[in-house]
Write a structure and sequence with these properties.
Length: 303
């Protein structure tokens, strides 16, 4: 299989790990891995076909990338955007001491963008109203059973996310084995039926792009925001409706947990870069206090 190579020399310091971090779905993610040599491997579906990309950071600040598969050229062309080259934080002002501190701790933070909706839509839907453990298990199972093997010399077990066609082929029993309930499978099937049209959201961007995603039954404010954060690095797409984020933001900024309404008010001064403020807090290590009952992990395969 042909190997394509590209060396990118950015005009800003690149933190590859932080740019890629939102794409990782757990340590066992079959579509994103870091090998023993520190190289980052990721797979994707593109308009050119499936592809594998591997990234290596050099001491001179350059990033070298190799790619394989039908999507190799697309992935290499998208490398700068993936690592935050298109991100613009001009005009961002830290209105809280915690955000100012977090920004000093993470001066290289940039919002990366894959430039594609479908691959990030699947795990976003799987994460609706379940624990992270459940969602990651379903993601691994769907990729293992319905995603293609990663092109090129990728680490063993890496897969390309299932295509819309593959998602539409899944029968009820296999959804059940993957731990995906009826509401989430319906959302995925609805999205798969119009997947090419959803890619236009990347061109529309912002609120208009998120509104297009929400036309799909089963994709609401939270899911659209999660997709937008990754597909086009939306700096204002806050995940309202999240179980954890209001508590993280609230404890960091006002010393107590907030609901969505309270978080909306606290983050209002950061518009149109509210999500950037949230990312600073999360990347600097702010988290919700670890107390209270935990959600039980459900195993849909056993019922």
């Amino acid at each position: 299989m042909p190997e394509l190579f590209r060396r990118w020399e950015p005009d800003f310091p690149v933190d590859v790990s932080s740019a890629i971090a939102p794409l990782r779905r757990g340590r066992g993610d079959p579509c994103l891995r870091q090998d023993d040599a520190g190289r980052l491997w990721l797979t994707a579906n593109t308009e050119g076909g499936p592809g594998t990309l591997v990234l290596v950071c050099r001491t001179d600040g350059a990033v070298e990338a190799k790619a394989w598969g039908g999507g190799a050229e697309v992935l290499l062309d998208g490398l700068p955007a993936l690592l935050g080259a298109d991100d613009d934080d001009s005009g961002f002002v830290a209105h809280h001491d915690a955000v100012a501190w977090a920004r000093r701790q993470r001066p290289l933070l940039r919002l990366g963008a894959t430039g594609r909706v479908w691959d990030v839509l699947i795990p976003a839907v799987l994460e609706q109203k379940v624990t992270g453990h459940e969602a990651r298990r379903s993601w691994r199972e769907l990729c293992r059973r319905f995603g293609e093997p990663a092109p090129g010399p990728a680490p063993e077990g890496m897969r390309v996310p299932p295509t819309p066609r593959a998602i539409r082929s899944i029968v009820d029993w296999n959804w059940h084995k993957a731990g995906v309930d009826v509401s989430r499978r319906r959302a995925l099937l609805a999205a798969a039926s119009v997947a090419p049209r959803l890619e236009r959201a990347v061109e529309l961007r912002g609120a208009e792009g998120r509104a297009l995603l929400r036309k799909v039954p089963g994709i609401g404010v939270w899911t659209a925001a999660e997709i937008a954060q990754r597909a086009w690095g939306d700096p204002d797409a806050v995940s309202f409706g999240d179980f954890h984020i209001p508590a993280v933001v609230g404890h960091a900024l006002v010393g107590r947990a907030l609901d969505d309404e309270g978080m909306h008010a606290v983050l209002a001064p950061y518009a149109p870069q509210r999500q950037r403020a949230v990312r600073y807090l999360e990347s600097a290590g702010f988290s919700r206090p670890r107390f209270g009952p935990r959600y039980p992990v459900r195993d849909y395969r056993a019922i």
